[in-house]
Each structure stands twice: as structure tokens, then as C-alpha cells.
Amino acid sequence: MDCFEGRLRAVHLGMALVWSLLTSGQQAVADTPLRIVTFNAEILTAPRVRAGELQKYRWDIAREAQFERVAAVIEALDPDVLNLVEVTSREGVDLLVKILHEKGLGGYRGYHVEGLDRYTGMDVALISKIVPDAIAGAQIRIFHSDIDDPTWRESYQTRDRKGRASTRHASISRHSVYCLSVGRYKLGFLGLHLKSNPSSDDANAQRSAQAKIVQRIVKQEIVEKGYLPIVLGDINDYDPDVPDRDDARHTLTGVVRDIKNFDAQQPGDELVNVAVRMPRQADRYTAFWDRNENGARDPYDVFTMIDHIFLPQELMDYVMRAFIFHSVALETSDHRAVVVDLMLPSR
């Protein structure tokens, strides 16, 4: 090979290297991974704090151990966005973030807004690697109407203990809204903890009313502000479109369908349950009801899927994987985390 050929080959190699660097840079820009997790940590109460009447653990040593186990779940899952359900105070969020930082996970920040359930004290908080956008001066918000402003209230019909019909009013006392900018995507999250007990007629009526409020929050406080809506959390109801592990249990309400089809003026559902990407029906359970409270899994215990992540149709093509993380000790929580991995393109 003469000198000219050597120089020509060097030029070609240099151009190939430049092209490789450019294309690898384009790939890095084009693909933005995003892991979203929702996890009900079951009455996660900070030591020396009494935020509600319900307690999982009375003693600080047991509370501290629960925080360590919840932090270990977060460490294992490494979410970018964690919707944390049933934490009971700002102190609890701060303690959890402190433990994560001690583990070397310094990218996490916690965001808490005081809920309106004064009896349980349960809140829906955010722990995130991504700093939320400030909307109306706040990075995390909650919506509640007083008697003179019915925007975030909904009436429903039920019966009292004597069977007499009555009209009551529902609000969503346990929720939060936070908005994140991820690459070119603006994502608005509504974290929920709706009324429990999908077998109770009264609870189902109240939760159905809450679903109507969900629709209004999504439309007015997320979509109208230019964000794609993501609804997630402990919905306490079953999705009729996605069979879960327990074939004997079916929804008695339209709650999930109302949430997925939050805009009746548009054709079809706007949101999709990420559980449709979980191929194995036996894996589709998020809640464990320990009927005899013996701390063990017995044949007559109940395993159901009542925690969900609903993504907008526009994002479903970018779902890489969805699963439920079942490696959670019962002494940590009676729920399991729902996880979805996205790969968001830049163009």
C-alpha cells in the first residue's frame, strides 16, 4: 500500500469514526428511557409521627424497619417516577428519600402534599429523579371543593343501614397531581387512592362518583394544560378488559372504564391499562388479602389486581415492558408494585 492509499484509508477510517459517533449520539438523543412505578406501601408512617387513626406498626423500631424494606423495593426497581400511595406525612417522604440518598441514590427527590383524609392520614406522594414542573406555583397539587364550590365533588345514591335511599357527596381525599417534562414529552400524572372494597355496594357507589371527579381533573388540570395524562395508583377496582389472577372476581362498577374513557366526546378510550402488556394471567395480581391475618399465604387468601397504571394511547407504542413486582414481604405491604418501562423517542 503506497502513501496515497494509506492517507485515503486513514480518511475513510476517520469519516467512519465520525459517522459512528454522530449516529451513536443521535441514538442517545432519540431514546429516552422512563420507568414509572406505583406502589401502595401500606400505612407508611414515620417514627414519632401520628398522622391518622390507622397504624400498621405502633413502635418506632418496627416503623423504621418498614421504611428500610420500602427503600429496598425502590432500590431494586430503580424507578424514574414513583407514585407512592399510603405514606402518611411529609416526614415519611423525607425519611424515605434520606435512606435512598444514604444508599447512594442521590438523584431522588420527594414531593408531598397533605391529603384530605383526616381519619387515615393517608396521602399520595411522588419520589422522582425528574424535577416536576411548577403549575400554579406548585410542583404537586391536590383538588378539593368546599360546599360552595362543587367542582371537585360528585353526588351519588346509596342506602343506609335500614335500607333507606339517601344522597351523599364524594370527593377524592387521597390523590395528587404532578407534571413532568421528559424530553419532548409533557406528562401529567394523577396519583390515586380511591375508595376501598369492590364488593360493597356503598363503596362502589362512592368510587363511581370519584371516577367522575377523576375525569374532570384529567381534562381540566392535565389535558387542558398541555400534558399527556397518566393515571395510576390504588384504584380499588378491577379492569373488565384485563383478566387478573382471580377469575372469580369481576368489577361491579364502571369505574375503570370511566377513567380510561375520561372524555366521552372522543371516540374510544383515551387511556390503556399497561397490564395488557403482561402476557401471563397468573402474574396479574397486586393486592394480597390475608384473610386470617396469620402472615402467611393460604389457599383461601385473595390475590387481585386493583392497582393500575393507565397510559395514553399515544404512548403505548413506546412500552417496552410492564410487570408487577411480587418480591415484597407481607410485613412491608399488602400490595405489590406495578412497573412500566417506556422508551420515548425525541422525534
Q: Can you offer a commentary on this structure?
A:
The protein has helices at 3-30, 60-77, 90-102, 201-222, 255-260, and strands spanning 31-44, 81-87, 109-111, 123-128, 154-159, 165-170, 175-182, 185-193, 228-234, 271-273, 287-289, 302-304, 307-312, 319-325, 337-345. The chain has five helices and 15 strands. The strands form four sheets. It has a six-stranded mixed beta sheet with strand order 3-4-2-1-15-14. It has one domain: 4-Layer Sandwich (Deoxyribonuclease I, Chain A). Helix 2 (60-77) packs across helix 3 (90-102). By secondary structure, it is α+β, with helices and mostly antiparallel strands.
In summary, what is this structure?
With 347 residues, the chain is an alpha+beta fold. The protein has helices spanning 3-30, 60-77, 90-102, 201-222, 255-260; strands at 31-44, 81-87, 109-111, 123-128, 154-159, 165-170, 175-182, 185-193, 228-234, 271-273, 287-289, 302-304, 307-312, 319-325, 337-345.
Topology (SSEs and partners):
Elements: H1 3-30, E1 31-44, H2 60-77, E2 81-87, H3 90-102, E3 109-111, E4 123-128, E5 154-159, E6 165-170, E7 175-182, E8 185-193, H4 201-222, E9 228-234, H5 255-260, E10 271-273, E11 287-289, E12 302-304, E13 307-312, E14 319-325, E15 337-345
Parallel strand pairs: 1-2, 8-9
Antiparallel strand pairs: 1-15, 2-4, 3-4, 5-6, 7-8, 9-13, 10-13, 11-12, 14-15
